[in-house]
Automatic annotation (TrEMBL):
PANTHER family: D-GLUCOSIDE 3-DEHYDROGENASE, UDP-N-ACETYL-2-AMINO-2-DEOXY-D-GLUCURONATE OXIDASE
Domain GFO/IDH/MocA-like oxidoreductase intervals: 133-255
InterPro entries: Gfo/Idh/MocA-like_OxRdtase_N, Gfo/Idh/MocA_Oxidoreductase, GFO_IDH_MocA-like_dom, NAD(P)-bd_dom_sf
Molecular functions (GO terms): nucleotide binding
Protein name stated in the entry: Putative dehydrogenase
Domain Gfo/Idh/MocA-like oxidoreductase N-terminal span(s) in chain numbering: 6-119
Length: 337
């Protein structure tokens, strides 16, 4: 068997557990180090996982020369860590969003286009069976010309979620709230399914949570290339994490995603196309795509082509949501889009 691919994880918080589990479950990959700016977190993870721990990523790169790094830090640290990794010749798999502003995300996207290493973006919901089935149905032409659609994310992020990691509630570190942190996955799907945005009219606000700076609620109307129009709604003020809803309608049929089930309705009636298996546990709404995406990233590491989810792919949803913030007067003075 060939030598394992060496990897490291930078940012040992909530989501790192999912990345570490996927790494542990992939026999081709070996974890060689972890990093967190919090010395206690770095030390605990180092002991638990039996690998060296670091409090800055550059020291980790210099000491261990991993082939791959997973970036699971707060949003404002994605681009700085990813750029340093590219400079050090380390492949990058970064969590969404690409960056906390469009300006810095564009910088990473540009650098990634000519990098000698791969830069992948975690948009795991693209691996959902229902997402794949929507793309297949649209490619088959079964809907006819698309008129439009709608998508909504009714989730709950109560005060303890922000108290546990205050960056999530701050513009300077999170770059936003419900849209950039939670609903970005569904916004990305909507653009992937219906097409690139041409015009965006959005309104975001903090309506219910005065413990945070960022928005907890947003509505966006998007005109897509070719003419379809969609309406997007997101809130973090629901009382549960409800299943995402999404609907796309065309001249000949309608696709409806609800409760993790995708149905097609056309002249022949309604039939089920695909179902997403439900993950267990309190974080089940993260979906099951992480392990699929991470395994796919490693499986394609030797491909001559870039990994299909590049920073460029992530710019679409980021531009729509940051434009919504700007249109709502929410971006702090002097903040770039
Ligand atoms: N894809 C998904 O479904 C999903 C779900 C949850 C979180 N996320 C993403 O994962 C990322 C982390 O979110 P989280 O909820 O795990 O955050 P968290 O606050 O729980 O963990 C982040 C960790 O990074 C550390 N950190 C901060 N700056 C660092 C740096 N420069 N170098 C090393 N460590 C650093 C912090 O000390 C903390 O331990 C975010 O980008 C978030 O959007 C994605």
């Amino acid at each position: 068997m060939s030598e394992p691919i060496t990897t490291a994880v930078v940012g040992i918080g909530d989501i790192s557990a999912v990345h570490l589990a996927a790494i542990a479950g992939n026999p081709r990959v070996r974890l060689v180090g972890v990093c967190d700016v919090d010395p206690e977190r770095a030390a605990q993870a180092s002991e638990r996982l039996g690998v060296p721990g670091f409090t800055d990523h550059q020291s980790l790169f210099d000491a261990l020369h991993p082939q791959v790094v997973h970036v699971t830090t707060p949003h404002h640290q994605h681009v700085p860590v990813a750029l340093d990794a590219i400079e050090a010749g380390v492949h990058v798999l970064t969590e969404k969003p690409v960056g906390h502003t469009v300006a810095e995300a564009e910088e990473l996207a540009e650098r990634a286009r000519t990098a000698s290493v791969k830069v992948g973006l975690v948009l795991q919901n693209r691996y959902n069976p229902t997402s794949v089935a929507v793309r297949d149905a649209l490619a088959s032409g079964v809907l006819g010309p698309i008129a439009g659609g709608r998508a909504s994310v009714w989730w709950s992020r109560p005060a303890p979620y922000y108290a546990a990691a205050p960056w999530r509630g701050r513009w300077s570190e999170g770059g936003g709230g419900a849209l950039i942190n939670q609903a970005i996955h569904t916004l990305d799907l909507l653009l992937w399914f219906v097409g690139d945005p041409v015009t965006v009219r959005g309104k975001a606000a903090n309506l219910a949570d005065d413990t945070i700076e960022v928005e907890d609620n947003a509505t966006i109307v998007i005109d897509h290339e070719g003419g379809p129009r969609t309406v997007f709604f997101a809130t973090n003020s629901h009382h549960t994490n409800a299943a995402v809803e999404l609907e796309i309608t065309g001249r000949d049929g309608t696709l409806t995603l609800a409760a993790g089930e995708l149905r097609l309705t056309d002249a022949d009636g309604t039939r089920m196309l695909a179902t997403d298996a439900q993950a267990d546990g309190a974080r089940s709404y993260w979906g099951l795509g992480h392990a699929l995406l991470i395994d796919d990233f490693y499986a394609r590491l030797d491909d001559p082509e870039p990994f299909w989810l590049t920073p460029d792919v992530g710019l679409g949803a980021l531009r729509v949501l940051r434009t919504t913030y700007a249109q709502s007067g929410l971006l702090p003075d002097g903040t770039p889009l």
